[in-house]
Amino acid sequence: MGFPVKRMRRLRVSEGMRRLVRETELNVNDLIYPLFIIYGRDKKTAIESMPGIYQWSLDRLPEEINEARELGISAFLLFGIPEHKDAEAVQPGRKTG
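Above: the chain's sequence. Below: its structure in token form.
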């Protein structure tokens, strides 16, 4: 089988289709920075399973957010880590079902 004489352009038929199949572009506006919050004061604790990622106490959080904003990151996702955990993930003082 030789090279086709007619080139199929089904993926270029419209601007919408071209947008769908275009190469992916990624920039700083697409990034979301995960931040892990822990109880306490003046804490910055490394997370061993994620090198370069830390758990921050609320009083130290602004320094990390400001540094990320200087790099152009403007979206953050906060993960609160409870002070106490149990096997059923029940918060102390909260009734279940």
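The longest strand covers residues 33-38.
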